[in-house]
Amino acid sequence: MPRPSLFPAEPSPARQPALTHGADRVPAAEDLDLLRDFTRSFLQAVGLTVLSAATASKALILLKNEPAPDDLIFTDPHMPGMDGNTPCSRLGLPG
């Protein structure tokens, strides 16, 4: 019986991410540089525009110039100064 190859003969076509709820921009607040960069890269890879901030208070400043997002706010819940749930509550969104 032939042994299956570990590598496909043809490369699989690139998968396009599917966004089901129409989100196109996501505010993301994370105080650790490495995690903030990873989060931004990951969210951009699925086709989102990321409004990135190092603190929750900076995220609120960014959001003052933008309409409140309908779908998603990505925050670290344990940040110094202001926790990540505060921007959600100030925007009237569930945390």
What's the shape?
Answer: globular
Strand arrangement within the widest β-sheet reads 2-1-3
SSE topology string = EHEHEH
Q: What is the alpha-carbon Rg in Å?
A: 18 Å
Main beta sheet, described? 3 strands, parallel
Percent strand equals 5-15%
Question: Residue ranges: pLDDT <50 for 5 or more in a row?
Answer: none
Q: How many beta strands in the DSSP annotation? A: 3
How far the N terminus sits from the C terminus, by CA atoms, comes to: 56 Å
Helix segment tally = 3
Percent of residues in helices: 25-40%
Q: Return the structural class.
A: alpha/beta
Q: What is the averaged pLDDT score? A: 75
Helices and strands in order, then pairings?
Layout: E1 25-29, H1 33-45, E2 49-53, H2 56-64, E3 74-75, H3 86-90
Parallel strand pairs: 1-2, 1-3
